[in-house]
Amino acid sequence: MTTRSDLVFLIALPLFSSALLLLLGKIANKWGHLFATVISASTFGIGLYEFFAMRSRSGDARAATQHLFEWISVGTFKVDASLLLDQLSICFVLLITGVGTLIHIYSIAYMSHDLDRRRFFAYLNLFVAAMLLLVLGDSYLNLYVGWEGVGLASYLLIGFWNQKPAYAVAAKKAFVANRVGDVGLSLAIMIAFTQFGSVTFAGVKSGAASASPAALTAIGAMLLLAAAGKSAQFPLQSWLGDAMAGPTPVSALIHAATMVTAGVYLITRSNFIFDASATARLLVVIVGAITLLFGAIVGTAKDDIKKALAASTMSQIGYMILATGLGPVGYAFAIMHLLTHGFFKASMFLGAGSVMHGMNDEVNMRRYGALGRVMPITAITFGLGYLAIIGVPPFAGFYSKDKIIETAFNAGGSKGILLGGAALLGAAITAFYMTRVFVLTFMGSKRWDDQAHPHESPSLMWIPMVLLSVGSVASGFLLSKGSALVHWLAPVVNASDSEGGVELMKPIVVSALALGVVVLGVMTAIIKYGRSVPVEAPEGSLLTRFARRDLGQDDLNHRLLVLPGQAITRTLVSTDYGFIDGIVRAVGWTLGYISTSLKKIQNGYVRSYALLMTLGAIALLATIWLVTL
Amino acid sequence: MDISNYIYLSAILFTIGAIGVIVRRNAIVVFMCVELMLNAANLAFVTFARINGNIDGQIASFFTMVVAACEVVVGLAIIVTMYRSRRSASVDDASLLKR
Questions:
Q1: With contacts defined as CB-CB under 8 Å, which chain B residues touch A614?
Q2: Residues of A in contact with B99 (CB under 8 A)
């Protein structure tokens, strides 16, 4: 462990900038966006500096800590506000600040017509600060603060255009779904504290070695619930599609650099819990496998370009969660897919934003078509991201996704075949729906009407897209060259090369299989959408309609949670009104009645008062006489 | 003569005063009845002092007299003022407090 004193600036700078921009108000309108972008870029600078400083150290000295202050001290319960920057955190720091900065730059142009651009940038910085706190905290409690901060920032940004009621509702939905996950995280922290008496990662890790399997499984399940909330995994995935209500750069930030990656981080960070509990690992892979198919199927049916991309995020995060559940060997692949995904998904979201920018905010892909000719840079950068996500070699997704499929097959037995099959099927569907998105948007015949004048976006928007697409081309190769990332992360996740499990198929066979299904998916999509596409969506088969309704996730939530909740609320309200308020009203009414009756004796006549006084005195004397008798 | 007769006299006087306060309307008469009640009390005090053989009751009756004197000054002043403004000394006419 090395002690460093500049880690705090990673969080403090964007937090300060966010507070400054919010407090200064309109005064900062002129320069707020530039200031926020410079701050974000400088945190990336610090991140890079820390990365190289870490690389120059070796062995145990690589992980760095900084003690900030004593946060809670109650009896034996002590929590310090400390930061921990290790091999895992630095990956996230670079991703968050790097991709985050590019999104800041993009937003300068994208939001240039918005009157509230300064507030938008303040929220972006808040988002970055919260996410950095999440990945830098050295205990579950510190992580929790960042976790909540991310929830708050996402709420503010998804509902940024909250003058539209539907957008405000989407923000609320995201927040509530996240709260369900937060309950999981707080329960996990509480169980960990009662079991191990500590909430720091190190403390829990040392305690986990001798803990009871039931406790570990409980913690693991609760952590998984938390991860499902933040990372939009089954069964808490319903908020992600609606979160597209936010401005497109926000979607890029949520999907690529922050927020949804938090769940993967949490599970990877808690690897010692999941390594010790096979049941928890099984739950993780089940959730991952379901979600990756779920997201992929939803993605095939969406005509809204942003919602199709959102479904694909859900599916890709499903891959990562699946990988984290596959034991020590999977963590590094999950993080690798997370990093490559950060590049290509950000590139595609920014591309989608660029298309919307040129098409008067039209999101229906059926009204696009042939945009490649008028927006060549967007088409190329989006295309590179597209090739990366479907896993065509040598683009980034090929390296990261193949590894996950391969690891899934190697999980052993029928479990391996099931998981590997699901991952392979997911890859095929991914190829299909991403090709559909690309073909509908950039190729085929023009389907937009004469009001739209699509044009290439300004350079402030396409430069970040180009940089990200370079990342989506090269990152996979760079990260997997000589298993660079696997070795880099090995000290954190306890992985060793020898643990390959039973090798079901040779890696080359898996790659060939994956490539085969990808080609199949691409061909199907080209045959189906390459020729002519109706501008109005056809009714579609039962499955299509079901997928368009997000496979009934909202209907299910509505029937299962919202309606009973409303029934309970109604019952409580009527109980409150009829019974509790009834008692209060009855008391009030009775007292009022008595007062009205008694008021009559206050008639203003002195003689009447005198009579009453005399009678009272006589009654008093009589009472005394009776008592003493 | 039995000393308790004084107590009976005191009780009778007090009762007459109390009834006068309740039934009469003229403020001056009501006022006189109040004085009668006070003096009935004084008589009781003095009698009890005599029975107990100490002067505590007599001292108390002096206090009562002083208070009664003050009360007469203030009370008569109020009645005279009321009569001047309303041309009536009836206590039933002064029932503004009800409203």
A1: 18, 22
A2: 604
What does CATH list as the number for B4-87?
1.10.287.3510
Q: What local confidence, expressed as pLDDT, does residue A498 receive?
A: 46
- Structural domain spans, chain A: 557-628
pLDDT at A503: 63
B91 touching A, CB under 8 A? yes
What separation, in Å, do the N-terminal and C-terminal C-alpha atoms of chain B show? 54
Q: How far is CA A23 from CA A67, A146, A154, A158, in A?
A: 29, 21, 20, 21
Backbone φ and ψ of A511, nearest 5°: -60, -45
Q: Which residues pair with B90 in a beta bridge?
A: B26
State percent of chain A over pLDDT 70: 98
pLDDT tens-digit series, residues B38-65: 999 999 999 999 999 999 999 999 999 9
Question: Is A605 near chain B, with CB under 8 Å?
Answer: yes
Chain A, nearest residue to B23 by Cα: A607
B-chain residues near A617 (CB < 8 A): none
Its ipTM equals: 0.85
Chain B within 8 Å of A75 (Cβ-Cβ)? no
Alpha-carbon separation of residue A261 from A7, A100, B76 (angstroms)? 21, 13, 93
Residue B91: closest CA among chain A residues belongs to which residue?
Answer: A606
Best of A602, A607, A608, A614 to mutate (most B CBs within 10 Å, chain B): A607
pLDDT value at position A625?
Answer: 93
pLDDT at position B17 is 93
B15 touching A, CB under 8 A?
no
Mean pLDDT of the region A106-125: 86
CB contact under 8 A, A604 and B95: yes
* Site of tokens 């350079």: A459
Would you call B12 an interface residue with chain A, using a CB distance cutoff of 8 Å? no
Residues A286-308 have a mean pLDDT of 87
Closest residue on chain A to B98 (Cα): A604
**Tokens of residue A285, six digits:** 């892979």
pLDDT for A499 beyond 50? no
Q: Does B25 touch chain A (CB under 8 A)?
A: yes
Task: List chain B residues with CB under 8 Å of A602.
Answer: 98
Q: What is the overall mean pLDDT for chain A?
A: 85
What is the rounded CA–CA span in Å between residue A172 and residue A169? 5
Q: How far apart are CA A552 and CA A104, in angstroms?
A: 35
What are the residue ranges spanned by the domains of chain B? 4-87
Nearest CA in chain A to B34: A610
In this structure, what token pair is assigned to residue B91? 């206590």
Identify which of A355, A434, A420 has the alpha carbon closest to the alpha carbon of residue A388. Answer: A434
Place of tokens 């959102």: A310
pLDDT of amino acid A588? 94
Average of per-residue pLDDT across A20-42:
87
Calpha distance A150→A182 (Å, rounded): 11
Percent of chain A with pLDDT over 90: 11
